[in-house]
Amino acid sequence: MWLSKRFKVAALLTSWAANALCSSSDVGFLSPHKNTTCYPKLNVEELAARLSPHAEIYEPGSDGFIEGTLRWSAYHAPTVSLVVVPRNEEDVAETIKFANEFKSPFFAVNTGHGTITSQRKMRRGIEIWLDELRTVDISEDGKTAVVGGGALTKTVAETLFAAGKQAVTGFCECVGLLGASLGGGLSILQGKHGLAIDQFVSLRTVLADGSITTIDEDSELFWAMKGAGHNFGIVVSATYKIHDVEHQNWAFTAFTYAGEAVEDIFQALNDNFRADQQPADVVIAVAFELLPQVDPENPVIIVLVIQEGKDALDPVFAEVFTNLNPLATQTEIMPFDKLPIVLYANLEAGPCQRVGLNYFRHPQSIKEYNVASQRELYELFTDTIRAVPALNGSQILIDHFPTQGVQAIASESAAYPHRDKNIYFAPTIAYMPDGPELDKEAMKFSSRIREIVHKGTGEDKRSAYVNYAFGDESLPELFGEPWRIERLRELKEKYDPYGRFNFYAPIE
Ligand SMILES: Cc1cc2nc3c(=O)[nH]c(=O)nc-3n(C[C@H](O)[C@H](O)[C@H](O)COP(=O)(O)OP(=O)(O)OC[C@H]3O[C@@H](n4cnc5c(N)ncnc54)[C@H](O)[C@@H]3O)c2cc1C
């Protein structure tokens, strides 16, 4: 399917000569060339000569370029002039060195599920597409696995499960394990084992100057890679702790409610599933969404509850939700590797499709629901999708996850600052782009959700999981206390002084 590198070089040279433009509006390479408005003329033939024989280079218009630059969200997407597909760590290193020599921005991409708007600062740069770095190798003692920097959640989960093992992976099969892990890595297994970052043993990483290094607990960068990793390098492979599969099956029940139940649902969640009550093996996710087959006009609230090692939810948990008179209840038993099917997070499901929609979120992490705020959210959702039907594919998603494993790890041990939060609001605004007026409505809707949720916390400060962030959050919202930000800034100055990794929640 892929066109070969050698085949493409001649065409590339022509296209790059035409692309070596000066622009009055866009900013080219970042500091120390911050003020340049000219794009460099790249000697692509030279780049090709530096890469290993099977590495690929794709030019605009080619099938490989189109596939490699497809993104989950079209909103504020980075723009790319060249896609390089490395086959090994040296290819990544050589591409970075080449980009630095030619003063070209560069950016790692795996699945393109990242949505933060800082990515838009990537203008006509070199995309390092990690698609071919997808191996998963289990160590002989079965305690760790080395995972390629471009491995999908699905590949990792399925490969390990077939060997009776599990890693702390996310919900969604199509998300990159490293992309998610570098910001923290929320998982249905976090109640038992902690976040994905807590599983890092070592990270084989290419730094901003193109040097290759192994970052582990003896390295000062290890702390920063655990929560702010996008700022410091491209991880070509990572060694993760893995765990024996204790239970093959999980019980799954989806309870669907009408809007009248809002107060009861969130009061019940507050009363029965506070962080100190929620068992490590029970995971809850809530969605406000329009489900036309149930009610074509009013959004429903769906509460998904899954429990490890059971054929049915423990009655004590099931009763909490059946007592609230759901409109519908769906129950399944699923093995761990098939859970994404019922969670609507498998490769074939809507959240994994890249079809040109705009998606964005204004997230907020909290510890407890404000029931009145939840009612306000429901009314806002209903009013908005009635007034602007183009937004009716949006969802207010809430991950309500167990935290025993997360809180068992000292907060100071990682840059990730939100171990005290167990409820992650990820309101996902979704719509087909249709001009600035719709963008404005979508933005108004999304930011209003954040305002309501934040006001409901009664706290001064907002707090956002970096992997769900919109892009307008402050550093304290994303990275927490002043000491963390100071330490991140010092490391940034030392390891990425020219801000080459400044396209994802940059520490500036
Ligand atoms: C449908 C959906 C489901 C999600 N589910 C979860 C979940 O269950 N848990 C969770 O924690 N998050 C989840 N997220 C958020 C997810 O963690 C982020 O969107 C993440 O940025 C996706 O990473 P990616 O590699 O798939 O995407 P990309 O857009 O390819 O990458 C995102 C960022 O990560 C960087 N990156 C990717 N790989 C590497 C690497 N090897 N080395 C260095 N940088 C790298 C890229 O440069 C970019 O800055 C979900 C998001 C979506 C859209």
UniProtKB/TrEMBL annotation:
Keywords: FAD, Flavoprotein, Oxidoreductase, Signal. Its cofactor is FAD. Pfam families: BBE (PF08031), FAD_binding_4 (PF01565). PROSITE patterns: FAD_PCMH. Residues 75-245 form the FAD-binding PCMH-type domain. One of its GO terms (molecular function) is oxidoreductase activity. InterPro entries: BBE (IPR012951), FAD-bd_PCMH (IPR016166), FAD-bd_PCMH-like_sf (IPR036318), FAD-bd_PCMH_sub2 (IPR016169), FAD-linked_Oxidoreductase (IPR050416), Oxid_FAD_bind_N (IPR006094). Residues 1-22 form the signal peptide. Belongs to the oxygen-dependent FAD-linked oxidoreductase family. This is FAD binding domain-containing protein.
